[in-house]
Amino acid sequence: MVHYTCDMCGKPLLAEEDTRYVVKIEVYTACDAIDMDEDIDEEIMEIEETVEERDNIADAVDMLENGEYKTFRFDLCAKCHKKYLQDPLFLKSWRRTRFSEN
Ligand SMILES: [Zn+2]
Q1: pLDDT tens across 6-37, in order?
Q2: Which residue ranges make up each domain of the chain?
Q3: E-strand spans in 9-69?
Q4: CA of 12 to the centre of ligand 1 (A)
Q5: What angle do CA 75, 77, 83 make, to 5 degrees?
Q6: How far apart are CA 4 and CA 13, in angstroms?
Q7: 3-class secondary structure, 75
Q8: CA of 25 to the centre of ligand 1 (A)
Q9: Ligand 1 centroid, distance to 76 Cα (angstroms)
Q10: Which residues contact 68 (CB under 8 A, 6 or more apart)?
Q11: How many helices (H) and strands (E) does the chain have?
């Protein structure tokens, strides 16, 4: 039997009793941040198309190695799921921390 615990409060989640919520977060560089060279020769474009698949894999490996693409997966209990949805980026917690430092 697979046991889960809530990643926020550490509460054990029982498969048959507790509703488990999964949070998946993907973090990566947005494509519009990459400057496209407008002077790309059409011939080069054609060659690039044929190796596109291989390039995509290389790019993905590059991104992983550079830490530009990251995924996070969290299991949450019903209580923490509700809390999480109210403040997904923990902005309230951040603000609270900043105020207490002043
Ligand atoms: Zn929890």
Answers
A1: 999 999 998 888 899 999 999 988 877 556 56
A2: 4-101
A3: 12-13, 21-27
A4: 8
A5: 100
A6: 5
A7: strand
A8: 17
A9: 5
A10: 28, 29, 62
A11: 4, 4
Q: What is the pLDDT of residues 32-86, one digit of tens each?
A: 755 656 665 666 666 666 666 777 777 777 766 676 889 999 999 999 999 999 9
Q: 3-state DSSP call for residue 72?
A: strand
Interval between CA 79 and ligand 1 midpoint (Å): 6
CA of 57 to the centre of ligand 1 (A): 37
> How far does residue 68's CA lie from ligand 1's centre (Å)?
29
pLDDT of residue 99: 61
How far, in Å, from the CA of 81 to the mean position of ligand 1? Answer: 7
Instruction: Report the distance separating Cα 64 and Cα 56, nearest Å.
Output: 12
The SS3 of residue 102 is coil
DSSP β-bridge partners for residue 74: 23
